[in-house]
TrEMBL record:
GO cellular component: cytosol; protein-DNA complex
UniProt name for this protein: Two-component system OmpR family response regulator
Stretches assigned to the OmpR/PhoB-type domain: 133-229
DNA-binding region: 133-229
Signal peptide interval: none
């Protein structure tokens, strides 16, 4: 079995060593980095399977956000997990807006962290198993499952992995209301309702950059969301 490679960027030495030891114990290959500079140099020539980022690194309070943005520009499909003591709503929204797939507080238990990492990898495995149609087309929408790519009016929509699976979940069943819990399950993420709402808002904006008249995603108040039939 191919060993998954995880990179952790964390400036607290003891914490980094603890994460690294635990993940290696569970079968992952782990690279630990402690400064934004070393991370930028590393990512310029290496492509891991998943990245875990702290937000504040050294004297730069937003270094993790900057690295997240850089990594997302390099790859739309790389799973990125923010793990930080900064868990205010504005920080969570900022991380997700910049392309993070998940945003966790450092007080999370290790079993919970391992479960979230496994969930992100499971999502990739579903894609590789070919259990779903490799391609789906409906009107102006075209989804390439194997490539994790989605097109609207023949233009690529720049979605994160989480956003891709949410749109795919909605669009495959037009008219059917998907609850926030169902969207979390389909995207293999476990976050609060406000985070799902933030994801949907960003998804709409990304479609509207291509098509200002886009209004395919309805909010069904008290229930969830649906893709218009």
């Amino acid at each position: 079995m191919n060993q998954k490679h995880i990179v952790i960027v964390e400036d607290e030495t003891d914490l980094l060593a603890n994460y690294k030891a635990t993940l290696e114990k569970h079968g992952y290959q782990v690279t630990g980095l402690s400064t934004p500079e070393s991370a930028e140099n590393y990512f310029s020539t290496n492509s891991p399977d998943l990245v875990i980022l702290d937000v504040g690194l050294g004297l730069n309070a937003d270094a993790g956000f900057q690295l997240c943005q850089m990594l997302r520009q390099q790859s739309a499909s790389l799973p990125i997990l923010m793990l930080t003591a900064r868990d205010d709503e504005i920080d969570v929204v900022s991380g997700l807006r910049l392309g993070a797939d998940d945003y966790l507080s450092k007080d999370i238990s290790m079993p919970h962290l391992l479960a979230r990492i496994a969930g992100l990898f499971r999502r990739q495995d579903v894609n590789q198993s070919h259990v779903q149609k490799a391609q789906f087309e409906k009107g102006d929408l075209r989804i390439l499952i194997d490539n994790l790519q989605l097109f609207w009016q023949q233009q690529l929509v720049d979605l994160t992995v989480t956003e891709f699976w949410m749109v795919q979940s909605l669009a495959r069943f037009p008219g059917q209301v998907k609850t926030r819990e169902q969207l979390m399950k389909d995207a293999n993420v476990y976050v609060d309702d406000s985070t799902i709402t933030s994801h949907i808002k960003r998804i709409r904006k990304k479609f509207q950059k291509i098509d200002p008249t886009f209004d395919q995603i309805d909010t069904v108040h008290g229930m969830g969301y649906r893709w218009k039939p």
